[in-house]
Specification:
heterodimer, A: mainly beta, four-stranded antiparallel β-sheet, B: mainly beta, six-stranded mixed β-sheet
Chain lengths: ~110, ~110
């Protein structure tokens, strides 16, 4: 079936504007993750959703960042009042419910804040 | 907290074997992963190994795990130009749900 999809693929915005990034996980995957990848660096965990449980928000860098997920479907990551240091690729991953399974990543959204 | 370290660059000749190394600190790691990232693309899961294994082979890929030294390696046999990419090592610990990634190793395959 289809893999993880993300939109938009690229987003250029002005400092201070809000942006919304979208992730469509693999159908049937109950776990969903958001990561951030700054240029030349590894991935930083942002937030994790598992079914109807309360999300693990421990990786969100500030209260300007928030994310929502309705049930086991689409998730949106919102960044309010964007700053230049928010420029990065934002990657979404999904995973089946079973404990040993792997995370499958989407292509990412490249965010550039001018 | 957890930490995952990788060397930043590796160059090999086409046809040679590549060995990419990774060290991690969390002794409770349950799964260790290798991901490949090509320019402008997302992360592709290559392989993973459970912490009670010491070796896993999948076609040209061999993963070796030394749990005592917390050292993981990825060997790519008969490296091709299409293998040029950034390779990320990641660990998933028992108590955590997310992956902790290394900063990636840029593999360059020379003709």
């Amino acid at each position: 079936g289809a893999g993880v999809s993300q939109s938009p693929s690229n987003k250029v915005t002005e400092k201070g504007k809000d942006v919304e990034l979208r992730c469509d996980p693999i159908s049937g995957h109950t776990a969903l993750y958001w990561y951030r990848q700054r240029l030349g660096q590894g991935l930083e965990f942002l937030i994790y959703f598992q079914g109807n449980s309360a999300p693990d928000k421990s990786g969100l860098p500030s209260d300007r960042f928030s994310a929502e997920r309705t049930g086991e479907s689409v998730s949106t990551l919102t960044i309010q009042r964007t700053q230049q240091e928010d420029s990065a690729v934002y990657l979404c991953a999904s995973r089946e419910a079973s404990g040993g399974s792997s995370q499958y990543f989407g292509p990412g959204t490249r965010l550039t804040v001018l | 907290g957890e930490d995952v370290e990788q060397s930043l660059f590796l160059s090999v000749r086409e046809g040679d074997s590549s060995v990419i190394n990774c060290t991690y600190t969390d002794s409770s790691s349950t799964y260790l992963y290798w991901y490949k990232q090509e320019p402008g693309a997302g992360l592709q899961l290559l392989t993973y190994i459970f912490s009670n294994m010491d070796m896993k082979q999948d076609q040209r890929l061999t993963v070796l795990l030394n749990k005592k030294d917390k050292h993981l390696s990825l060997r790519i046999a008969d490296t091709q130009t299409g293998d040029s990419a950034i390779y990320f090592c990641a660990e998933r610990s028992g108590s955590a749900r997310q992956l902790t990634f290394g900063s990636g190793t840029q593999l360059t395959v020379l003709p």
